[in-house]
Amino acid sequence: MSEQNTSAVGAESAQPWDETRIRASLARIEQLQNQLDALRFVIPTITASAVNQGTSRTTYFKQFSVTAIGGSEQLEKFKRDWRDKSTQEIFDKAKTRREEDSNLSMAVGVPKYGWIEQDEGGSALSSTEVEDMKKTVEMWKEKHPEVKVNLEDEDSKAIVQYTAGPYRLHFTVARVVEDNRKQVYQVSCSGAKPVFAAMERCIASRPRTDRLYDTLDMLSAYSNLPTAQCATCKRLLDRQATIPAARRRKQSASPPAENGTDVEWDALHESCLSR
Ligand SMILES: [Zn+2]
């Protein structure tokens, strides 16, 4: 997604700053904000993996190294995207405009979020609208009757359960509305197996943390957990002998369909996510 945005902005760098380019630039900035949000979880997950007792030394080392390397790669990607020419052009443009006209009152009415979806051709929730989880869950369940979804805590939390081969999957999806009215869905994955902890980390670093329908789609994509090969390295096991713990939307030429219908998912190792 960020690659697509990069090329969209980059390809137009000789173009005037028309509405299309400004919208694409806002999507780019939102993408960087999402990357920054995901980076907040890096230190807590490294700490959690370091204090995780009761595992063998091999598993302990594996979990710790994958988490630490993954976090460092996330940071490097953010730095690359931040320094990228297309990003710097956006900052330069903003600076020039501010010098031309320092009255920023119009900016108050510009939503912070929803530009990525618009840039991809989808519709976005308004930044002040809190999603009706019950409505979205019911709509989603019609397409996925095989997955059990229960709502709890006055419909602010969804419990998603199903079986994938030998794995009993149990996800908790909790809606968190932040001070700036941005809603995000935090997902935890219950169970003692190391792959569950890896899945939780991979789900936390997904794009579109504010979309319940997409999140549920991603969770249901683990139905092939025991057998899915990694889309990047084409293997079942990575060097740490772990199965692919991440699911990401398959990259396609056409924009994603409304409400994530007919979305195809790639399985990826945690270590292959940022390659
Ligand atoms: Zn892989």
Automatic annotation (TrEMBL):
Keywords: Nucleus, Transcription, Transcription regulation. GO terms for cellular component: mediator complex. This is Uncharacterized protein. It comes from Rhizodiscina lignyota. Belongs to the Mediator complex subunit 27 family. InterPro entries: Mediator_Med27. It is found in: Nucleus. Residues 244-264 are annotated as: Disordered.
